[in-house]
Amino acid sequence: MSTETTAGATRAPVIGASATGVPATGVPATGVPATGVPATGVPATGVPAVGAPDPRRWLVLAVLALTQLMIVLDATIVSIALPQIQTRFGISDSNRQWIVTAYGLAFGGLLLLGGRVADFWGRKRSLVLGVLGFAVASAVGGFAVNSPMLYGARTLQGVFAALLAPAVLSVLSTTFTDPRERASAFALYGAIGAGGAALGLVLGGVLTEYLSWRWCLLVNLPLSGLAALGAVRWVRASRVQGHARYDIPGAVLVSGGLAGLVYGFSRASEPGRGWSTGPTIAVLAVSVTLLLAFVGWESRSPHPLMPLRIPRNPVRAGALLASLVIAAGFIGSTLFLTFYFQVVLGYSPVRAGVASLPLSGAIAFSAILASRAMPRFGARWLAVGGALVSAAGLVWTAQLEVAGSFLTAVLPGQVVLGLGLGFVFVPLSLTALHEVAPDDSGVTSALLNATNQVGGSLGTALLNTIATSTAAAAVAAAALAGRGGDAGPSALVTGYQHAFTWAAALLVVAAVVAGLLVRVPRDPAAAPAAPVG
After folding, report:
1. Are 118 and 175 contained in the same domain?
2. Residues 6 or more apart whose Cβ sits within 8 Å of residue 308
3. 176-185: per-residue pLDDT in tens?
4. pTM, entire model
5. Is 491 domain-assigned?
6. Residue 440, domain CATH
7. In terms of domains, do 179 and 253 share one?
């Protein structure tokens, strides 16, 4: 067994891409990556680790790139296969969201804990275990025989992704010590985040149409095998010195509270239950109690999962809250495009995947423009304007019809949505990391990524409840009017329309939050770093 050695933690020179599939922001170097950086437990001084460069560092980069691609792909590749999975297992409309949210909740809820485990237990160990665990979870999902088995596999994927994502970024930071080489390495990392999400949409369509939806999960097996072999052979063992203390109670409380919220949303959409029934209210009340208990525990814990001094700063809290609401509206709404394309319009999985690409392209393009506009307009007004433009795109999309045209009913709204989102992601990411104390840079970055994961999961569950309940009401109304036989597609579209409308409302809320709380210099990346809160 190789001996673990200590490597100093360094900050990454560019902002990367979210492991959730949200494209890279394309912002200039800020000194801190925006995604998944683990809490290192040592000061992030920005000083390269002592010693000669690793002669195998470019091979290590290939391993890390493959691992990151696997994580990013998994956030989108399954989405195209959702109609086929739902049909195969007879999953109800109210429960189909678990295929998406089980992964996101586990990932986001355990990401901060995964960062500490990776640093103190060992980055190489965490990378290898994470890859192998992710492969096992993917195999379980690929060979699932019922929906609970699939939900469990997706949850397990999220657990190991929460260990993998910070391990990848930590190994990347400690392997590349030359500033130019590190910039190139992180540029590749960001490009994978931007392109991987789009690749997942197309690859998911191809695998689903020509092989089986199961290959959307099984495709991780060869990728994991190559990554694990490369990690064992080329990645140096390193870890942070000191006694490892993990906030297990905090992780249990926050994960339980978030899962309870999603379960409560799911119950509310089931026939005969609804929001006002006793069991639904009880589940939601227990969930809120667990989340409040989490906040209370974090205020007393000697080693908190989320140091409350980070969100206590109102500007940073506003950026994190706005990011969570944006993710809820944006990621939550994308579920319905998949079903609209394949169930209502009759698109093949491949065509549905290609039809989803303009949104990713528009985000990537506008993110580049936003990074250049930051010094002139500032984070506040870019975020507000971007959120409102995105809301307008969703309002346009909400006008879709049963026999609607992609070019007129979907494409314009999705392009407008994407253009607005790029102008939101960049300023909110920079604002969340503005004036963060060096020791808090890692946990703040991971917290930003966690808000995207958690917000997307909560939004998916909430909007799916709205869509399902609305569609059921439309079917019932049609039956009373004697039109039950023709109500199916029309009811589905009515549900999607309501979901897109509520998603637009969430983005308006995010714009209000950003307008009230996001108040930083016009170029926060260039502002002098001073601890806040």
Report:
1. yes
2. 295, 298, 299
3. 888 788 778 8
4. 0.82
5. yes
6. 1.20.1250.20
7. no
